[in-house]
Amino acid sequence: MKDVLLGTILSLALACCTQAATVLVEAEGFGDRGGWVVDQQSIDVMGSPYLLAHGLGVPVADAKTTVTLPEPGAYRVFVRTKDWVAQWNAPGAPGKFQLLIDGKPLKETFGAKGVEWFWHDGGTVEIGKKKVMLALHDLTGFEGRCDAILLTNEPGFIPPNELDALAAFRKEMLDLPDRPYEAGQFDVVVVGGGVAGCCTAVSAARLAVKVALVQNRPVLGGNSSSEIRVGIVGKINQPPYPILGEIVAEMHATGKNRPRNAGPAKDFRDGVKLNLVKAEKNISLFLCEHVCKVEMHNGRITAVVSKNIVTGRESRFTGRWFADCTGDGTVGFLAGADYEVTAKGHMGSSNLWSVRDAGVPSGFPRCPWGLDLADKPIPTKLHLLGEWFWESGFDLDTINDAEAIRDHNLRAIYSVWDCLKNVKKLYPNHELQWVAYVSGRRESRRLLGDVVLTKEDIVAGKEYDDGCVSSTWSIDLHYPDPKYAAASPGNEFISTARFTKFEKNPYPIPYRCFYSRNIDNLMMAGRDISVTHEALGTVRVMATTGMMGEVLGRAAALCKKHNCDPRDVYRRHLDELKLLLQQSTGKPSTHGG
């Protein structure tokens, strides 16, 4: 019988990264300088998150946890990790870290090899007691990563690395139950806690709909949260239904008062959003829950299953209707909904960042593993650093290549700052203030509804009888900026925007873009609605997606009232929906549902 003990990201996260799940929620923003943070950039591929040493070039504090072994003795140690710059054959291994057992480091240094995730053999260590302290000791502050730690006293045992086998092994070692926890039965299960999802949940709850709001991060707001920090654009309270946008305004400062991109964490009002959702008695909020499975019966979704990104425990949410507000169309994809994706030439993902004047000379480590930018065109002015156009992944798979896209963004950021500070000798008193380790995505899957809105529709001002959400942002599509292409040919990290204005502005987006054409009880709000790649350029901004959520909440109330599906709201109850769209849901609920 083998004795295997798995100390993973999950237990480490509980022991030392409580801040990643608590401070972010309660104090409106994890410390800008970072730490060992729970990252899930590639969770849809790996099946689990991992710990990331995000220190902006300064080693972060140790991540610690205590484990109890079956007995003292000799244990072979494995650490599942990778060298994140090895994909570019870059020298230097910036993600190096050590594993300490009761304060003593193993001889092996981790994070210094492996293009792909693998179990790095740390050798055998003699342990003289049953209870020991494990600690991840960062050596660089440059994105070292650890998925799991394994201690085994079975000679010759090698842990599985293939993802399906690894998932089963992880479940066994963590003693996770075979069946998910039953989280409850709801009228509507809203998956995704960005602007669109929050507005959907609040709007529905205020109309006596019992809602589960399932979010895979410890904060609400998505791209408008303190983790990603994109300012909200797009006009609210516009015709044909000027009441729409009232919930957006409750959660966010909009217009001239909106937070600037990469601004201070407090400006993104994580606590305001959290309190707004918690104030609704009809909403059950579930943070840190990543939906990974969908259950179907007779072509309808009956439940979604999530995995907690800290504990690994699965939960099951049953409902009558489901709203996909994930941005990536995750629920629709898992359910077999019709969708489109622009494989090449789509908009990229951004990791925003900022610098500050420290008032004293401030250094930055050289990055031999970075891009050689000494004679390359790069932005050099302070106001150009870290803005929306720091963007890459235009020809990569936004979901399956998410970790590589994010890592390329980070490598570019550190390389540029190294070049500005150490080569061009600019900004001697400035330092990195904040760098997003969670990418802000612009485009991935688009779920198809009864209407697929096109650029031609918008430019021509085509009228739909169910036009409702006012889209006011010009058709704004991003492409690699040729001016900076030489800095990273073929994988550019600076974009440019091309705008197409339309005369009928605001343009009312049809309600029929907000539900699936082949999954009868699936709705969607956000950047995964039923539009073409070009039409996405106007509807994707967050003030607009929030208003989509406000419409979806009203539609959900009609589905409950008439025991019907979203398509029936259009076919049989459109006039009633239009009447609801003229009525406010902007006052907090006083009923329990």
Write a structural description:
- This protein has 14 helices and 29 strands.
- The chain is of the alpha+beta class and 593 residues long.
- The chain has 3 domains: 151 residues, Jelly Rolls (Sandwich); 244 residues, FAD/NAD(P)-binding domain (3-Layer(bba) Sandwich); 92 residues, no CATH class.
- The strands form 9 sheets. Strands 12, 13, 14, 15, 16, 17 and 29 form a 7-stranded mixed β-sheet that branches.
- The protein is globular, with a radius of gyration of 24 Å.
- The N terminus and C terminus are likely disordered.
Q: Provide the low-confidence segments as ranges.
A: 1-5, 7-31, 589-593
Count of structural domains = 3
CATH class value of the largest domain: Alpha Beta
Derived structural class? alpha+beta
Please summarize the sheet with the most strands: 7 strands, mixed
In quaternary terms, these chains amount to single chain
- In angstroms, what separates the terminal alpha carbons? 54 Å
Strand content: 25-35%
In CATH, the topology of the largest domain is named FAD/NAD(P)-binding domain
Q: Which helices and strands appear, and what pairs or packs with what?
A:
Blueprint: E1 4-8, H1 9-16, H2 18-21, H3 23-26, E2 35-39, H4 43-46, E3 50-54, E4 63-68, E5 73-81, E6 97-101, E7 104-105, E8 118-127, E9 131-138, E10 142-146, E11 148-152, H5 163-173, E12 181-191, H6 195-205, E13 211-214, H7 246-251, H8 270-278, E14 283-286, E15 289-297, E16 300-308, E17 314-324, H9 330-335, E18 339-341, E19 349-350, E20 353-357, E21 391-392, H10 402-423, E22 430-435, E23 440-441, E24 445-447, H11 455-460, E25 467-471, E26 475-480, E27 495-500, E28 507-510, E29 522-524, H12 533-539, H13 542-562, H14 566-580
Parallel strand pairs: 12-13, 12-17, 13-14, 17-29
Antiparallel strand pairs: 1-11, 2-3, 3-10, 4-9, 5-8, 5-11, 6-7, 6-9, 15-16, 16-17, 18-24, 19-21, 19-23, 20-22, 25-28, 26-27
Helix pairs in contact: 6-13, 13-14
